[in-house]
Amino acid sequence: MNKQISVQVNDxxxxxxxxxxxxxISFEVYDGEIFGFxxxxxxxxxTTIKMLCGLLLPSSGSAHVKGYDVYKETAKIKQxxxxxxxxxxxxxxxxVSENIEFFGGVYGLSVRELKTAREKALREFGLxxxxxxxxxxxPLGWKQRLALACSLLHKPKILFLDEPTGGVDPISRRxxxxxxxxxxxxxxxxxxxxxYMDEVEYCNRISIMHSGKIVAMGTxxxxxxxxxxxxxxxxxxxxxxx
Amino acid sequence: xxxxxxxxxxxxxxxxxxDPRSLxxxxxxxxxxxxxxxxxxxxxxxxxxxxxxxxxxxQASRQVAELFTNNQYFKIAADLTNRGQIEPLMMDRTxxxxxxxPEGFGADLVAKPAASLQVLIDGSNANTATVxxxxxxAALASYTMDLNSGLHAPVxxxxxxxxxxxxxxxxxxxxxxxxxxxxxxxxxxxxxxxAREKETGTMEQILVxxxxxxxxxxxxxxxxxxxxxxxxxxxxxxxxxxFAVPIRGNLLLLxxxxxxxxxxxxxxxxLISSKARTQQVALMISLVGTLLPSILLSxxxxxxxALPKFLQALSYAVPARYYLVIVRGIMLKxxxxxxxxxxxxxxxxxxxxxxxxxxxxxxxxxxG
Lengths: 242, 368
Prior knowledge:
- Chain A is of the alpha/beta class.
- Chain A has helices spanning 45-52, 74-80, 96-106, 111-124, 140-151, 170-185, 197-200, 220-227, 232-241, and strands at residues 5-16, 19-30, 34-39, 60-65, 68-69, 81-84, 158-162, 189-194, 205-210, 213-218.
- Chain A has 9 helices and 10 strands.
- In chain A, α3 crosses α4, α3 (96-106) runs parallel beside α5 and α8 packs across α9 (232-241).
- The radius of gyration of chain A is 18 Å and the shape is globular.
- Chain B is 65% helix and 6% strand.
- A 4-stranded mixed β-sheet of chain B has the order 2-1-3-4, covered by helices on one side.
- The model of chain B has no long low-confidence stretch (mean pLDDT 86).
- Chain A binds chain B through residues 16, 50, 53-57, 75, 78-79, 81, 83, 85, 87, 89-94, 98, 101-108, 110, 154, and chain B through 1, 3-4, 6-8, 10-11, 14-15, 18-19, 200-202, 204-211, 366-368.
């Protein structure tokens, strides 16, 4: 199988003063893959994502997203990626439709493109009835849907999700992952961080991060076999306790 | 490129219109301030409460007392019969000054080269005391002049005050108010709105898009330029209609130079927000860093030359200082740009410098 590399990371590090948040990590993510980043809070997942999205410059090492350099070509990277953080960063005082229009506009969509993208987003995420509501009135699960819809308006090739299901009820989480699956199926690369162990099973491959380092990487199946454990959770605990 | 700025402007306008707090700052605050400064706070002292103790009971002493009875600046609060009455009145603030005409005043006036009066003044408020002393001296000086009218006075000073002949303080306060309000709207509101986006994470969400930081800043700042302009026009109209403050110079010039001041204030706001991570911090810094200096170190209320040397030096970093020269110059003196290019240039350089620093800071400060 000919796998196209979507994200390539080599020896990447980031320090904050003396604190080493990300410590010489290397990995590759392929097109259409759901790649999971598993780790405790403070393991360095968010810092890694921010470097790949062009929000944060690395201290050393190299990384390429869709072939573009994270040091020099952040503008091109940004046009090609979608990003959604655990905060579901939406404007509470804007209507649902206004949020969609705003984020589409920021990506430079024309009026006509924006109209198509808005209709599509409202339809695909079942937000039609809510489009005239203030965003602050939405339940958390719906805010999450809206945030995802907003990050997809410009049809990104890679989607970065930073703990996208934090605080959301199980039904919404399941729906959310259903959506992620469909996206991957359509060729979008999904890069997701999480600390929910059950979500890890949805990923094609995962990497386990601890104190800034990648301590294990592979398919969930391979990892369980390699460490002779029943679940990824047990693998995780085994690795972190060492 | 343009169509990336437009959505930001649109969104910002929605924020302003849907947020009761920003609406309060934009509409209620200017109204309250102009009413307060225009009607209530005045530096002209009228109705000075004075007591007169006439121990002479002569024609001359009555003439002196009359100087104060028929005078809009004074109000006779008490006619005294002995010295012991003065202190209690001063203590309970019934009077701020007492005039004592000693026995023999009238006779001395005729027989001797000079006669003496005593004036007692409450010095617990030094400012008022100075003003009261000046007013009393002035009242008595006119009386002395009348007495001397037959003779040749060696030197006669005839002060004539230009631009604001009645020394009406609203006429110089309202232009200052313009500066304070615009500074408040520009610096405070912009720094808060940018800090808010950092707090909620929406700034990160915008920065992950291909939009440039200058596009974000322009988009966020433009609506506030419009708002500041509207507020300034309303304050000016108010000043002219209600307080009869003259606008002697060119209105277009005033508008153009106000734009330069708005530019400097906005740059200051953007700089503050590039440092502040939360709305609270942004609010505190903008209050202490822009509003207070605009009131205290700009010449709005206290004359700059009367300030201690180091505060005078500090005042050069306060944009309102330059703007006040511009507004008072155009409104009261009716002067043109040929007298105002220096303060205008200072404002422009000030704004550009700050903007450059904050553009540099803007992205890097979001990290971490």
